[in-house]
Amino acid sequence: MNFTAIILQLISGGVGGNIAGALLKRLNLGPVGNSIAGIVGGILTGQVLRMLGSGGAAATAASAASTSGMDLTSIISNVGGAGVGGAAVMAIIGLIKTQMSKSS
Fold first, then answer.
1. 89 with 38: CB under 8 angstroms?
2. What Rg value do the Cα atoms of the chain yield, rounded?
């Protein structure tokens, strides 16, 4: 388990959730809600992407390179994937919250 990757996913997910909250005012959950949803989305997306990438030839080359630490490709992949995942989860939770408040 690579703790550097998890920390990158946490930070990127939180930032992605807050950026999505700023852009999607109607779905905004507030700073804390955006951060929590983004962190959850960042971790989930980061782990799914890691599992999907673990079976290919690129993963074999990346694992050989990662014995000495994370390479630039894996850092960019973690940051990008977790940021997008955090934004997506924040938007989904915001949409659900909006729909639930309309029906009550």
1. yes
2. 15
Residue range 35-51, pLDDT digits in tens: 999 999 999 998 888 88
Residue 4 in any domain: the answer is no
For the chain, the domain total comes to 1
In this structure, is the dihedral angle defined by the CA atoms of residues 60, 62, 65 and 70, taken in order, positive or negative?
Answer: negative
What are φ and ψ of residue 82, in 5° steps? -70, -35
> pTM of this prediction?
0.79
Measured distance CA(94)–CA(68) in Å, rounded:
40
Domain that holds residue 82: 72-104
What tokens does 87 get?
């934004």
Query: Does some domain include residue 97?
Result: yes
